[in-house]
Amino acid sequence: MNFDEALPRLVASYDQGLLTPFVGLGVSVGTCSQWRDLIVNLSEEARQQGLGVFPDINAVPEPELPKWANRIVALLRRNDPTAFPDVMRKALYAKKPSDPMFITDAVNELANV
To answer: Which of 99, 80, 78, 94 is nearest to 42 (CA)?
Structure first.
């Protein structure tokens, strides 16, 4: 399957709430939780909601992260679909006082769009 064939299927899956895109840092670095921290935050939220106990995400090998992210997101979405956007925002924008905060050139360019 090539990109032109896959794109409509991806869009349809996203529109149906069946796809959660996880993208690299790029634009969000310094503003949002990094990939592993996002999954840690989501797993903690799932644990607090009584949805299970997850491994220490900080100890999970990098290739295993997407699998755990997918499992945790699926549980959170099924548990309360209407609350999921707020759960994701909270996990995404959770910052520690020691985290750097800066606006990248890419963020400035997007703000101008």
So the answer is: 94
